[in-house]
Write a structure and sequence with these properties.
The protein is of the alpha+beta class and 112 residues long. It has a domain at 28-102: Translation Initiation Factor Eif1 (2-Layer Sandwich). It has helices spanning 55-66, 89-98, and strands at residues 30-36, 42-47, 70-75, 79-85, 107-109. It has a 5-stranded mixed sheet with strand order 3-4-2-1-5, with helices on one face. Strand 3 and strand 4 (79-85) form a beta hairpin. It is elongated. It holds the Pfam family SUI1. Keywords: Protein biosynthesis, Translation regulation. Belongs to the SUI1 family. Probably involved in translation. It comes from Coffea canephora (Robusta coffee).
Length: 112
């Protein structure tokens, strides 16, 4: 038998998740959303922060800065999510950028 040195390329699936953070287009976004409660009350959620950060310390600073209440909620699908009282979307995005936690192009603001 003859041994051939042929390398068969692995199948490439374009729809698989790419875990390489250095690849272009593979940004990790931080999503800031607002959810309507009852009446005029609303809730701001921040998700997608890196696990390197202490969410409890970030929450403490956010609460002091915006004079609002909040907590960290553990979600099955989304992981840990920060919740703040009121519509704090713009305030939270400015805070995260000025604190150096995320870059401005990594923030997605959702809501009405």
């Amino acid at each position: 038998m003859v041994d051939l040195d042929i390398q068969i390329p692995a199948a490439f699936d374009p729809f698989t998740e790419d875990n390489d953070s250095g690849a272009p287009g593979a940004k990790e976004y931080v999503h800031i959303r607002v959810q309507q409660r009852n009446g005029k009350k609303c809730l701001t959620t921040i998700q997608g922060l890196k696990k390197d950060f202490s969410l409890e310390k970030i929450l403490k600073d956010l609460k002091k800065e915006f004079c609002c209440n909040g907590n960290v909620v553990q979600d099955k699908e989304l992981g840990k999510v920060i919740q703040l009282q009121g519509d704090q979307r713009k305030n939270a995005s400015q805070f995260l950028v000025t604190a150096g936690i995320v870059k401005k192009d990594q923030i997605k603001i959702h809501g009405f």
